[in-house]
Design goal:
alpha+beta; about 140 residues; five-stranded mixed beta barrel
């Protein structure tokens, strides 16, 4: 009985680990260039890592509004603390190159979860997720 419970628990946690990154799907990845029209710090718009077990409030994330070829994209970059730690800052008017996956937020709106973003005018560039979609900030502490 104890062994069965241990196996079920292990399966549950393995499933939960997989589901943490379920929001990022390489099959629906897009790349585009555009102009930042707004920058804001928002509460996470996606269900984050073990959201139902979270003991502290979610950290703010940087959200960009990017205009490209007549379209407007809401681009989720990463946690504000991580972006500051990496000295990456965005401003309205910045030209950016974005690679990320399309997802729907809890609010029903379409967002781009960024895997890589660069600002050619400053030479700033950052990989926010690895090729499997795992966030880079999980390897860092606040």
């Amino acid at each position: 009985m104890a062994a069965s419970l241990m196996v079920l628990t292990s399966v549950f946690f393995a499933y939960a680990q997989t589901e943490q990154d379920a929001g990022y799907d390489q099959n629906i990845e897009v790349s585009f260039s555009g102009t930042v029209s707004a920058v804001s710090e928002e509460a996470p718009l996606m269900q984050g890592r073990s959201g139902f077990m979270r003991k502290r409030p979610p950290r703010q994330q940087i959200l960009l509004t990017v205009k490209s070829s007549g379209r407007v994209y809401q681009v989720i970059t990463g946690p504000a603390w991580f972006m500051r730690k990496k000295n990456i800052a965005f401003a309205a008017g910045d030209e950016v190159n974005v690679t990320g996956a399309k997802v729907f937020g809890r609010d029903g709106n379409l967002y781009i979860i960024t895997r890589h973003i660069s600002i050619p005018s400053t030479g700033s560039s950052i990989a926010l997720r690895d090729s499997m979609g795992r966030p880079a900030w999980r390897r860092h502490s606040q």
